[in-house]
Amino acid sequence: MFGLVKFIHLINCIIFNIVIILILTKKLPLKRMVRKSKIIFWIILISNIFSATLQFFCLINLDSNIWYHLGADCLGIIGQSTLLIGVVWMKLIAEPSPRPMKILAIGAHPDDIEIACGGSIAKLCDAGHTIVGLIVSGGECGGNSSSRRIEAMKGAEFLGINKVEMMDFPDTRLDNFVLEISKQIETVVNELKPDIVFTHSVHDIHQDHRAVHYATVRACRNLSTILCYESPSITQKFQPNVFVNIEQYIDVKIESIREHEDQNKKSYVQPEQVYGKAIFRGTQAKLKQAEGFEAIRINLPI
After folding, report:
1. How far apart are alpha carbons 104 and 193 in whole angstroms?
2. Residue 17's CB: how many other CB atoms inside 10 A?
């Protein structure tokens, strides 16, 4: 009997330790799969450490009452079942779109897309749309250009963006290259033929953002839907009239911004500020959390 009990405890201990290793090494997919991923991560980790410790204690104390051993096993099974139900309940579920679209998201700098519309992009990715990211400069004046380019790829991959193209125009001087930027954007537009384009607003104090806005509007002059997103440098003239519900995706947005480690000291990338802006735009749209956009024009498929 005790040989069987010992074997069961050994197997359980191994399983719990495997789960701990998987949780620690595969943390990134968990962050992308569920809401409140940070809380879920710590609950799963702590519960598995507790269960593994309990199983190990039972393994080295086989002289204990048999009911004690059965209780430890039952506690582990109930705990893991509860966690599994919790993960399924918190899993991000996006309804597949009946009409998959092609979407182009354009940013002046490597982190602009994640900061401004990361929640919407992640939601659209999960709904089955094809998304291409276009980044105009390496952001060398605001940090380490090499690091920022790598982080841009990581952030895009985390969101689920299918492809990212990096241009090489000089950071902070994009207003001197509006025509050239427009021509390169137009090349991408002609190849992709996007249904929706996300870009910067003209109501922005950053000259690079305004330059990308003007370049985008010119390059996308024949497209029916252009949405201008909200960057940290927008002015009070930014008045969104289109909103996307990101209640389930606010944590995904924050985690995608965290991929840009080179910029993590800046105030506008801090989680409380990202949450605050999403709550504010959500209040305007009668939602819990939202991202707001100015529509240059919009085609509603109704």
Report:
1. 9
2. 16
| 59, 118 contact by CB (below 8 A) | no
**pTM (two decimals):** 0.79
Q: Find tokens 């707001």 and name the residue.
A: 292
Short-list 205, 266, 212, 215, CA closest to 238: 205
Per-residue pLDDT of 131-160, as tens digits, reads 999 999 999 998 888 899 999 999 999 999
| Assigned CATH for 102-297 | 3.40.50.10320
Handedness of CA 111, 113, 115, 121 (dihedral sign): negative
Note the pLDDT tens digit of each residue in 106-129.
999 999 999 999 999 999 999 999
3-state secondary structure labels for all residues of 191-242: HHCCCEEEEECCCECCHHHHHHHHHHHHHCCCCCCEEEECCCCECCCCCCCE
